[in-house]
Structures are given as C-alpha cells and as structure tokens.
Amino acid sequence: MIDTIFVPRGAEADAVRSAAARARSKVRVVELGIGPLAARLAADDALEGAPCGTSLVTGLCGLLSPAFAVGEALVYREMHADEEPSIALDRALADAIAAKLPEAQTGIRAFASDRIVTTSHAKRELRARTDADAVDMESYAVTERLQRRGVTVAVLRVGSDGASESLPELDRALDGSGGIDGLALALAMLRRPRAGLRLAGNGLRALAALQRAIAAILR
Fold this sequence. Notes:
Shape: globular
CATH superfamily: Nucleoside phosphorylase domain
Distance between the termini: 10 Å
Oligomer: single chain
CATH topology: Rossmann fold
Strand content: 15-25%
Number of domains: 1
C-alpha cells in the first residue's frame, strides 16, 4: 500500500525505521529537515532521485483541539496554510490507513506553521483563527510537492503535546538548515525545566505510538 514514507530526521525517522524493520518492510524512508523549507527541499531531492508511488507523510504534531490526547494517531483529511490554497488528502488512502489503525482519529483538519507553536495561548489563538485540530511544520510543504507530481499521499501524525500544554522555546534550537542545535535545545529545556520534562515524557510516549502505528500500516 505504501512504498515511500517521508518523516523528519532524528527520533521520528528512527521510530519509522524501527517499525519498518519490525514489519519486515522494504519501504523507502525519506528523511526531512525540520520546517517547511527544509522539508520541501528534501521532497524535491527525493522526487529527482527515484520515482515515488503511494506515499505517507508522518511524524509528530502539536494538538490544537482539546478533543485529542498525546499519543493519539491522527489521519489528516485536509491541510491549510496562511495565504496558500487548502490541500485535500487522498480519501481512499486515508481510509485504508485508518482501517489498519482502528483507534486512530480521522477527518483531521491540520494547519501548516512555519514555526513551532510553543505556548498554550498561541495554540488557543491558532485554533480559534483556523479551526484546525493539529499543527505541524512539514506535511503541507511535502504534500504540495508530491501532489504536484501526481503522487497519491496520506498524512498520519501522532500528537506530541496537548492543546493546553506549553513547550520550551524550541524555535531557538532550530539551526536554520532543518536541524537542531543540541546546545541550544539543552538551554531551552533548562530555561523551562517543568515544560522540558513534560515534553520529554510526552515525546517518548508519542514516538512509541508512532512506531506502533507505522508497523501496523506496513504489515
């Protein structure tokens, strides 16, 4: 069903590769930089390197709706971005993925952000303005590139921080090239230790859920 998976590099990519190994799948895994620009460039490189068939964009996401919890798998229905046309995901592929993940939340409306939404106040404002359920930085950019080339795409993300939860100032840790500066990340966590500890715990939970979901899809 899926022959190519696009996922942010680092822990998210590691979880996907572990899931593929568990499922004994030879799916192609394309690692993305963090943020829309880096993700778009990686998608362009992948499209030039080899043809992409049915593709899945995956990873973690921030939750904007209080109806969803950390660790839940979300199957996107549509994505929106400021000053850009909306993107609808392939309905048949989304339904096929949901059938393999009976506990997944479906029909998700997502918003594409060019920065990490770190405060509960900002999440509430974004939810009120866009009526989105979730937010991430890469899915819209990658899907736009793939659909332009005629690739069938679905998006599955796992919630890593709740709508009412604030994060450390993670934007300071982004290095501008789609990577994370380890020292800047450590400093951001130290500035808000309680938020940092919660982020670490939620992240482990979400990554485990991501690994389970991808393994189920690839079996």
